[in-house]
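1st attempt posting a full record on here, be nice pls
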Amino acid sequence: MTATRVRPPSVADARPSDTTVVERLPKPAVAGRFPSDELVETQAMVIEPIEAAPPVEAPTAQFTLSFSTGETVVVTGTGLVGRRPVTQPGEQVDQLVAVQDPARSVSKTHLEFGLEGGELWICDRYSGNGTVAHPLGGVARQCEAGRRYRVTPGTRVEIGDQWFDVS
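the predicted structure (as tokens):
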């Protein structure tokens, strides 16, 4: 068996298609002296472009809101829930969800919902009777008005005397 000695490539080995770069590298400092610049010739690495893979889209979770009044809504983006939900000037949402509530415990525009990063969030819109989220197997949480809360499938959200389940 014969051993072969391999030496690193040098500038002399460069092919005409390779790129040679001149860089300024500092010399190592010697006690009592400052480093000075020295021209050093190095061989640049040539990177070949590869064919880009098609983008992989993350699977989007689909959420359904099932209301105590019988309505069912598939979440498609942002939306408002209430007895007669209306947007604020300049505000745009994808869905307006009207909840039948003869007792008027649900505010006209009670809460906002939306999708972000494949997760569903809700936000109480300063409703009169508030919003409470009951996560499956978790502790109920009174939602602070104006603050977004993530909700997961299995969560029950109380809005006044009405509620909806997230699936």
